[in-house]
Amino acid sequence: MAADKTILKALAGETQSIPPIWMMRQAGRYLPEYKATRAEAGDFLSLCYNSDLATEVTLQPIRRYGFDAAILFADILLLPQALGADLWFVTGEGPRLSTITDQAGLDALKPVSDIHETLNPIYQTVRNLASALPRETTLIGFAGAPWTVATYMIAGRGTPDQGPAHALKDEDKAVFEGLLDRITEGTIEYLSAQIEAGAEVVKLFDSWAGSLKGADFDRYATAPTQRIISELKARHPGIPIIAFPREAGDKYIGFHAKTGADCVAIDDSVSAEWAAEHVQKDGCVQGNLASSHMVTGGDALVSETKRIVKAFGNGPHIFNLGHGITPDADPDNVQRMIDAVRGA
Ligand code: CP3
Questions:
Q1: 163 and 78 together in one domain
Q2: Which pathway does the protein contribute to (predicted)?
Q3: How many whole angstroms from 25 Cα to the centroid of ligand 1?
Q4: Which of 5, 35, 94, 120 has its CA 20 to 30 Å from the CA of residue 110?
């Protein structure tokens, strides 16, 4: 591990005059070279499980832009699949899964020790990347956080308000909490295997954390995240971890301390100035340019980028978007953002 990697310095708490930068969904459909490799693979899941092609798409944005980090190409829904859920993607609509709504569904899941059988190609992708990446580039592994993964396993699809998951939580707490526990245990094993294969940092995506309110947020977003982080750090001392409780709002405050995360990723529903004052005082933050600027570009892209760099300039910061880049983004706008961050 090169001690001079800028991402690792930020995660260790160092303030840098130019923050390191990477981008959520940096390997994705806005890039023509991604679309070409995706077509070669067939469908999205075949791409995830093809270690050679998944390595290739992970490297594409590194070659094109020289980002400071590469994120493993995979998906948060591979873990449910490894636990025995059926998973498929409907073009233009998104993921579909078999649903879990009762004890029988929970009992039918595979034991956590069986997940590696399905996920071995993902670990191979990590090993490929660990040897293929430039020495200055940090390799990030990831998984979904338990609540977000559970929302898909319960509803069988993405939902605007996570209604089915909230309903199960309120109607059958034993099944809901049993499912969350199973996902938590699976996530520990999955991320641990990614770290053993060469991931230098891991990130937990809790994309739907914002729909948990009050004590539910503490119980189902904060607590499982804390459990995963403490177990990973016990097994892999010093492994840096990024937590992303998207749209947590006020609940971003204290999230470093409550979970043990080295870095808290911030979405763009809060201002960088607010997050600098209330969240960055506790440690590294990542974020938080609105991904719409990658579509619209222009002067606003440059001025917003510079505003965010300045707002987070007095503490440890990793520049990123507030959420994933969208397929309608212009690849030239990504370069403009990078130039604005690096001061070119
Ligand atoms: O950041 C990265 O580039 C790493 C790879 C990654 C993907 N998905 C690749 C992907 C990561 C970290 C994810 C996370 C993910 N996947 C989340 C949480 C983060 C978030 O964006 O909120 C969720 C909810 C999923 C589930 C999922 N996978 C959805 C809702 C979709 C969109 C379906 C669609 O048709 O747009 C996917 C597909 C997906 N995952 C794509 C990529 C690049 C698009 C695949 C394609 O069609 O080529």
A1: yes
A2: Porphyrin-containing compound metabolism; protoporphyrin-IX biosynthesis; coproporphyrinogen-III from 5-aminolevulinate: step 4/4
A3: 7
A4: 94
Domain boundary among 200, 224, 253: 253
| Own/partner long-range contacts of 217-220 (Cβ < 8 Å, ≥24 apart) | 217/248, 217/251, 218/258, 220/146, 220/147, 220/169, 220/180
- 174-187 pLDDT, tens digit per residue, is 999 999 999 999 99
Domain finish residue from 228, 253, 278: 253
Residue 329, C-beta contacts closer than 8 angstroms, at least 6 positions apart: 30, 291, 294, 295
**Domain containing residue 116:** 72-253
CB 40 within 8 A of CB 172: no
Q: What CATH number has the domain bearing residue 193?
A: 3.20.20.210
For residue 1, pLDDT beyond 60: no
**Residues with catalytic function:** 25, 29, 38, 75, 152
Helices (H), the chain: 6-11, 32-41, 44-49, 51-65, 78-82, 103-107, 115-132, 146-155, 163-171, 173-197, 214-217, 223-235, 255-259, 272-278, 293-296, 298-311, 331-342
Question: How many domains are contained in the chain?
Answer: 2
ipTM of the complex: 0.92
Q: Does ligand 1 come within 6 angstroms of the Cβ of 320?
A: no
Statement to judge: residues 213 and 293 lie in one domain: no
